[in-house]
């Protein structure tokens, strides 16, 4: 079966698919993590506040009381939208993971667009590697590893991450 992916008409240097990137990757480079269309505003508010707290506090300090206080949402509403506080954390962490993946896809897509030769592509990928593996980014790498470890034995969290992965793959 022939490959029906759309590509731009600009010629890429041999060995570099800068302009010939499939449309699906081009779309992902501009993709924003959007809430599920049918998601309730209260649910989204709880998730966003949890994400903000996870970005600024150690995980142990992100409590249901703190999320409720910062969001101005009642405990009853929390339990209306989530089975328990841990489900809220799982959904927020899955969304955080998806945002990280989205940012990585955008960075790679930008590199592909900028490269004018194979040597330049290798140089840009090397720079991306140096930036993403810098000591200052260790916290983010640790967070991803902890996230993967947290899925072990937690079918609900595995499902939440699988939904985000499917959404990213289909976008």
Task: Write up this protein.
- The protein is mostly helical and about 170 residues long.
- The protein has helices spanning about 25-30, 40-55, 65-70, 75-80, 85-115, 120-130, 140-150, 155-170.
- The radius of gyration is 19 Å and the shape is elongated.
List the helices and strands and how they pair.
Elements: H1 23-29, H2 41-56, H3 64-71, H4 75-81, H5 85-114, H6 118-132, H7 138-150, H8 155-170
Helix pairs in contact: 1-5, 2-3, 2-5, 5-6, 5-8
Short description:
With 171 residues, this protein is mostly helical. Helices cover 65% and strands 0% of the residues.
Largest sheet: none
β-strand percent reads under 5%
Low-confidence stretches: 1-37
Binned, the helix content reads 55-70%
Keywords:
171 residues; mainly alpha; elongated; disordered N terminus
């Amino acid at each position: 079966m022939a490959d029906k992916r759309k590509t731009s008409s600009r010629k890429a240097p041999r060995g570099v698919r800068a302009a010939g990137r499939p449309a699906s990757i081009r779309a992902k480079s501009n993709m924003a993590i959007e809430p599920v269309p049918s998601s309730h505003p209260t649910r989204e508010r709880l998730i966003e506040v949890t994400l903000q707290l996870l970005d600024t506090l150690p995980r142990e300090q992100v409590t249901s009381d703190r999320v409720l206080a910062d969001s101005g949402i009642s405990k009853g509403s929390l339990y209306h939208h989530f089975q328990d506080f841990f489900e809220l954390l799982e959904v927020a962490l899955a969304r955080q993971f998806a945002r990280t993946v989205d940012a990585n896809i955008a960075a790679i897509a930008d590199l592909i667009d900028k490269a004018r030769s194979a040597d330049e592509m290798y140089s840009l990928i090397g720079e991306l590697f140096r930036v993403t593996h810098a000591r200052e980014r260790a916290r983010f790498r640790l967070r991803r590893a902890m996230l993967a470890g947290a899925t072990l034995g937690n079918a609900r969290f595995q499902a939440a991450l699988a939904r985000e992965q499917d959404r990213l793959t289909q976008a």
